[in-house]
Amino acid sequence: MLIPGRTKPRALSSKRPAPRRLIASPRQRLFWTLGNLLMFTGVYLLLYVGGVYVQIDYLRTAARGDNDLEVPQAIIPASQAIRRPMAAGVPRPSLAPTAAPAFSIPQLNSAEGRIASDLPSDTQLAHISSVERVVIPSVALDAKVIEVGWSTQEIEGKAVAVWDVAEYVIGQHRGSANPGEGGNVVLAGHVAGNGHVFRDLFYVHPGEKIIIYSGGQEFLYVVQDRLIVDEDGAPPAQRAENAKLIAPTDHELITMITCWPPNGRDKFTQRVVVRAVPFSATPIDTPADAPLVNTIR
Description:
Layout: H1 26-63, E1 75-76, E2 106-107, E3 116-117, H2 122-126, E4 131-136, E5 141-148, E6 150-155, E7 158-163, E8 165-166, E9 170-173, E10 184-188, E11 209-214, E12 217-230, H3 236-244, E13 253-260, E14 270-278, E15 294-295
Parallel strand pairs: 5-9, 10-13
Antiparallel strand pairs: 1-8, 2-3, 3-7, 4-5, 4-11, 6-7, 9-10, 11-12, 12-14, 12-15, 13-14
């Protein structure tokens, strides 16, 4: 009912007034952009680092000898060691046949814990390594093996072969003997790094068994010696004694080598050498008074 003199009341609107649009300042836009960039960068780094760890874990698994995964072929080339330029007048190495033995006497001394030897002969170049797997039950080691080569470098004024190192598996030095050939089988591996396949070699004791798979056959050995020798910075007489440990032999022998200790002030300045003979063989002769070589028991 309308009252005279009064207008009809307006209906109440259900719509709310539109909020005022806030206009971001240039500074706010800059912070917003930087925040998004940092967020996406963090996500990318997280995925990348996670992927790296997954890949390392996969390669470690593939390096184990108890699976059929493809053998990791990754090596750390000897070219990554400290290089010294060839001196003027030093002749370049030749691959021509020489009168050198099939496996010249190596030296454990080298840059960054690597192993160096005289330049390989043609006989070594033609030799094919056959070791496929190494098992040491006492330290739960079960690892695949690949052949490793070398690069030519100058150390102390002499052109030598510096051996590559397998990154995840054990490396058999090309030119060293194979099981059953009656010689010295030289096997090397890392004590640290991504693969650290020989991280427990120090804890292998004399009398423990080692199983080698080579050429489709299984060979059983028993540890005869566990040695630790000073190498980096050692006098020439010490290095000469060390070299004999991986020299050719006229009897069946497994020689496994890694650096020691894995950390600390003296990191990689020594070598751990484990030698093993066939299970039924006569023990090798290691005199108690052998000079400059310390046997750890």
